[in-house]
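Q: You know discrete backbone vocabularies at least as well as I do. I have my own habits and do not want them to colour yours. No explanation is needed for now; the record alone will do.
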Amino acid sequence: ISSNYPSSSVSSISFTSIPQTFSALIVDMALVGDSTTYNQFQLKTNSLSSSTDFKYQAAAFSGANGSNGTASLTTGFAGTVGLSIGGTHTIQADPSQPVKARCFIPNYASSSVNKIVHGVFYANNYTQKDYSNGTGEFFVGRINDNAAITSITLSPRTSTYNGGSYSVHPIGVSLYGIKA
């Protein structure tokens, strides 16, 4: 549907006037934050602005040097307006380590059901082939609103996203529609 790869730092990335002709949406992200202080992705839809509009749960995973890693479960974030994607982690401040996430939003065009968002978040220094310290999460969220999704805004909970392109990995967001 659209892509946004900013060439300089921005405080948010938005997609507006999303066509209602698909059965589902995929939001594909590769982002770098200016700060690693409590700086997770935040996904908002339409004009929702209350922390009660969004619910979130994630199973985090991490592993080092080929170990089986660990897992933990996280639920919600008080005071968060939007779904906290990567809520158990921070966005890397190192441009060689963009954080990758992919969200799947079925039934986004429906005006009769709350929306579910699920996906995966993954962070490590993959541009330097350092796969030994990967971390991430599988997540699911609920948007407590029956309205069709016509806009999506992504922002860090604090700070800004660094724009630009590093190595062969562009920094930005793409929005895809899936036909039934």
Remarks:
- Residues 64 and 133 are 4 Å apart (CA to CA).
- The chain has a mean pLDDT of 74.
- The chain is about 0% helix and 50% strand.
- The longest strand covers residues 130-143.
